[in-house]
Amino acid sequence: MSASLSDHPIVHLARRFAARLQECAEVQRFRQAEQQINQSETVRHLIETIKRKQKEWVHAKHYQKTEYVRQLEQELDQLQRELDNLPIVREYQQSQVDVNDLLQTIQQVVADTISAKIHVETGGDVSGGCGSGGPCGCK
Questions:
Q1: Rounded to an integer, what distance in angstroms lies between the CA atom of residue 26 and that of residue 2?
Q2: Which residues form a coiled coil (predicted)?
Q3: How far apart are CA 114 and CA 121, in angstroms?
Q4: Handedness of CA 114, 116, 122, 128 (dihedral sign)
């Protein structure tokens, strides 16, 4: 970002908004769930076991040990189910979804508000080209 843009009043407002966003309940819940995940011995052990089994699976696949590959796949499925069914993991995943939904809603509100005042493409089909007939081929 150029020096002139980084000093723009809108950029300052965006930084203040981002700081306020850190204080909202969804973000706080996400941070708390993330901290619990990072401190959980159970989660750490399951993740380490999954990684180890994945490496074994790659080697077994490489050496075409079909039966062992099947066994490892079943073990990996079971370990993943165990991990996914832990309450703190479910809370963490849900909090990620909630924060993502909030951020997408904010982004959509900003895009819709700007588009209502100034024609700005927000995705999807472009309604027209630059009009110059240049590299984009429009007329």
A1: 32
A2: 62-89
A3: 10
A4: negative
Backbone phi and psi for residue 91, each to the nearest 5 degrees, phi listed first: -65, -45
On the CB side of 30, how many CA atoms lie within 13 Å of its CA? Answer: 18
When mean pLDDT is compared across 34-43, 88-97, 110-119, the lowest value belongs to 110-119
Q: Within 10 A of 58 (CB to CB), how many other CB atoms are there?
A: 12
Instruction: Give the architecture (CATH level 2) of 3-100.
Output: Up-down Bundle (1.20)
Confidence label for 134 from pLDDT (cuts 50, 70 and 90): low
d(CA 61, CA 69): 6
Tokens (6 digits) for 15: 């930084």
**Res 23 pLDDT > 80:** yes
> Cα 125 to the chain's mean position, in Å?
25
Prediction pTM value: 0.70
Contact 54, 73 (CB under 8 A): no
